């Protein structure tokens, strides 16, 4: 029970961090994705 709650909390923190990082490096990410796709 405690493990699952800790896991969910960690996932939430990770998602928030990823979101903030994504919003910062969105142009770079899209550029790399574009170059990889084509």
Structure summary:
The chain has 38 residues and is an all-alpha fold. The chain is 92% helix and 0% strand.
Structure description:
By secondary structure, the chain is mainly α. The chain has one domain (2-37). 92% of the residues lie in helices and 0% in strands. The protein has 2 helices and no strands. The N and C termini lie far apart (46 Å).
Keywords:
mainly alpha; 2 helices; 38 residues; single chain
The count of domains is 1
Compute the CA-based radius of gyration.
15 Å
What form results from the Cα inertia axes?
elongated
Percent in helix: over 70%
* Strand proportion: under 5%
Note the quaternary state here. Answer: single chain
User: Spans of 5+ residues with little confidence (pLDDT < 50)?
Assistant: none
Order of helices and strands: HH
Major sheet details: none
Provide a count of the helices: 2
pLDDT average, as an integer? 76
Number of beta-strand segments: 0
Cα distance, first to last residue? 46 Å
Structural class: mainly alpha
């Amino acid at each position: 029970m405690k493990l699952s709650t800790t896991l969910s909390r960690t996932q939430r923190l990770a998602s928030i961090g990823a979101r903030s990082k994504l919003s910062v490096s969105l142009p770079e990410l899209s550029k790399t994705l574009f170059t990889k796709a084509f």
